[in-house]
Amino acid sequence: MKKSFVCFLFVIFSFLCNGCELRAYHADENEHHDKNPLTVMKWNVSAPNWTHASLVGNELFIAVNADQTNRASVNELLAVNVKTKKQRMLFQSAHEEAMVQWVQANNRWVVWEDSTSFGAESTIWVMDRKTGSTFLAARSNSSPPTVFNPVLDGEYIAWTEKGSQFGQVKLFHLPTKQGKTIGRLVSQGLYNEFVSLRNGKVIWTDSHDGKGYYYVYDIRTGRSASYESPAPFPAYAEYDNGLIYAIHLEDLEYPDQQTFGYFDLKTKRFSRFPVSHGIIQYFDVSNGKLAFLDDRGAVSVYEQRNGKWKAVKVSLDRYPRLLYFDQQDHLIVEQEDTKRDRRWLNIVKWP
Known about the structure:
3% of the residues lie in helices and 54% in strands. The chain is mainly beta. Strands 2, 3, 4, 29, 30 and 31 form a six-stranded antiparallel beta sheet that branches. A five-stranded antiparallel beta sheet has the order 1-25-26-27-28, with no helix packed on it.
């Protein structure tokens, strides 16, 4: 899931401040079809506030607000069948001003974070879809506030925690409910607050002594490795198919002066992304697919074929505010038309 750049602070405040009134959802009966075999499902969100969503089969997991008197809160996690339109509540936060977010799901597990609006108290919850049981994976009420931003892949989740001196990188095995610390963060900034978890590897970045680094933890072997990045601040790193993607910054004060590219773990070489693009606000990668949302509000999608990047034509609506891939390789583009007070999802499905 997950990474923003120039407007990431804006998105966090949007999650905290946008109101939410309704809980009903419905799918657009007319799905978009391109000449290529992609399908885009339009799913209308009647609630004025929501955070993340994940689609598994016909079941859409999404966090919304059921409290119409408190527009700053997102306090429920729902499961909605996109075919029958039936919905059920999986979780309700006990916080007066809650932020249920980072919803992720696969065939076995559903993971989400529940926190107070500004992260003074945060918890990671997990639901076993096989048994229906729910358990607590992590809790924090520390200072500075921690927003975990958990990432799910297979039967593991990973996240970062802030500390008084150093941050920590955590890994948690869901079937055994066992967690451990696998790394630390010298620099505790927004740009490296997130981990990437895919293909048995946990990826994060850090900066110290004027240099930036990629860190790789191999779950199978339990070993870690680090590699120097071409810039002091490798930001919002994502891992996919042996490549570490990141936005590279020389100075955090100038986020529009960015270099986007990827580090190849096999060759130990960095390459700039070869296709011209605008200033990246969000990007995500999944199984050889890459999606951008740039500063002009344009969404670009690419696939790597035979070692080359090819543009993917896909029909999307024109009000994107956020994009990410879920665990099933669906590209989810959140759309919001503020003038007409409308919100919806474009969910792109590959065959």
